[in-house]
Amino acid sequence: xxxxGPEATLLGTDPYTGxxxxxxxxxxxxxxxxxxxDEIGPDGASGAYFVMNxxxxxxxxxxxxxxxxxxxxxxxxxxxxxxxxxxxxEQYVQHDHLLTLPEAVRKMTSFAADxxxxxxxxxxxxxxxxxxIVFDPAKVxxxxxYPEPLQLAEGFDVVIVNGKVARENGTLAAQQSGRVLQPxxxxxx
Length: 189
Description:
The chain is of the alpha+beta class. It has 2 domains: 6-49, no CATH class; 54-188, no CATH class. Helices cover 29% and strands 12% of the residues. It has helices at 21-28, 32-40, 54-61, 80-95, 101-108, 110-115, and strands spanning 9-11, 47-49, 132-135, 156-161, 164-168, 171-172.
């Protein structure tokens, strides 16, 4: 796909899910600008925008000042919502060797907890919440794709949230033990 423009905009909201803006314009026989204004409208549609530069992304990822997170939402139609962390381990640790496993784990755990000022998360230590994942890095595989972004990654054998097993060998626990965490609001303190 080209960078930018209607060919690089993959729509993720029904009834357009899985079509590029260019595909939709061709199907409707309308300029994409008119589709955006007249059909998709001000409430818009979710989408994936292919504007990333892979070389730049890899370079930034190796910086000690750059963490790994996902801005994917539970309702979003984008593979980063289900595949970000597996992709880091599979591609950048196992395949490309740009990061060591400890550095990748730091970028996904303690670095993120520090940025969000979550003092009881992100590390294995006494007094911390026990949020842990047991995995063999060689078996981790990102399965989320643009056409099917909600596929869970493979290779994360046990997921422990707040000291309780939340998922084991592909099976969710009957009771959820986690919640969405909010960053500390320093202005309120």
